[in-house]
Design brief:
Elements: H1 8-18, E1 31-34, E2 43-47, H2 52-61, E3 65-68, H3 85-95, E4 99-102, H4 105-109, H5 114-122, E5 124-133, E6 136-152, H6 153-163, E7 171-174, E8 180-190, H7 195-201, E9 205-209, H8 213-225, E10 239-243, H9 245-249, H10 252-264, E11 270-273
Parallel strand pairs: 2-3, 2-11, 3-4, 8-9, 9-10
Antiparallel strand pairs: 1-4, 5-6, 6-8, 7-10
């Protein structure tokens, strides 16, 4: 006799063991967004963004639950009518009998979460959280550690470009491409607010996303100005490797899918990682030669 599938409540219980909602940032909106906890779950789709194309993929596949990294409702709304684009997402899910669950900053900081998945891909060993949670030194934002083998900034950036999903942005680099690199810090998603934490670790390079002009310029300028070695001001200034936000977080989906299957343990749930590129940028035009 085949085992009965778990309920949505059972699946949520495993997800919240993996990514406790209490570890999310105070401004975040995580957890079950839509769905009946008593319904059975046989198929779970994992994706970065709860956008219409992902919902269409889930419905076409017959998913009972979509787990996304980014919230659908990060700010309060007054309506989920299908006349709004977010309301239409909820209606299509519920009409198809599919729930929606969000693991955001609680997945960023978790063991085998977003930060660990990114750290694994770029080759970080002997690593620790960049900013640890007070109550759990193994859980926290970002990771910092040694590279599995020393290299140059150019070779490291090429590795990052190779292992992450292809996007229109690709990889941007700030620093001397021939500089030696043996230690690195990584933060999935937007990470310019953590630049000083990276400096404090003396990491050679910082991999993150959404780096803006003024923070990138001013923080590197300040780091060089404050360098203890005036003859080598760049020695205390981390090089930057800026990737697409979507690309930096997508690797976690495979970990989440595997860990949910392990946590449920009965083999009755099929998981799938969406390969749709939901990065909003679709093209990049290089500057013409002059």
């Amino acid at each position: 006799m085949n085992a009965a599938p778990p309920t949505l409540a059972d699946v949520v219980s495993v997800l919240e063991d993996l990514y406790p909602p209490s570890t999310a940032e105070g401004w975040d909106a995580v957890g079950l967004v839509a769905g009946d906890p008593s319904r059975p779950v046989r198929k779970v789709l994992f994706a970065v963004d709860p956008v219409a194309d992902v919902v269409a993929e889930a419905v076409d596949w017959g998913a009972d639950l979509v787990v996304t990294h980014h919230p659908l409702f990060l700010r309060g709304v007054h309506s989920v009518a299908a006349t709004t684009f977010k309301g239409a997402v909820v209606h299509r899910l519920l009409t198809a009998g599919c729930g929606l669950y969000v693991a955001h900053t609680n997945a960023d900081s978790a063991p085998r979460g977003v930060a660990d998945a990114l750290a694994d891909l770029v080759g970080l060993t002997d690593r620790r959280p960049l900013v640890a949670h007070v109550e759990d030194v193994d859980r926290g934002l970002g990771r910092v550690g040694r590279l599995d083998h020393p290299t140059t900034l150019r070779e490291f950036a090429e590795r990052v470009a190779q292992v992450l999903p292809a996007t229109a942005q690709g990889v941007r680099v700030a620093g001397d491409l021939d500089a030696p690199v043996s230690t690195a810090a990584v933060v999935g998603g937007s990470g310019d607010s953590l630049f000083d934490a990276v400096r404090a670790t003396a990491a050679d390079v910082y991999v993150t996303a959404d780096l803006r002009h003024h923070p990138a310029s001013e923080l590197r300028e300040r780091a060089a100005f404050e360098s203890p070695d005036p003859e080598r001001p760049q020695a205390g200034t981390p090089s930057l490797v800026d990737v697409a936000h979507f690309a930096s977080e997508w690797p976690w989906l495979a970990y989440a899918a595997a860990d949910l299957a392990t946590g449920l343990g009965d083999g009755t749930v099929t998981t799938k990682v969406s390969t749709l590129v939901t990065d909003p940028w679709t093209h990049r035009l290089g500057s013409p030669e002059r």
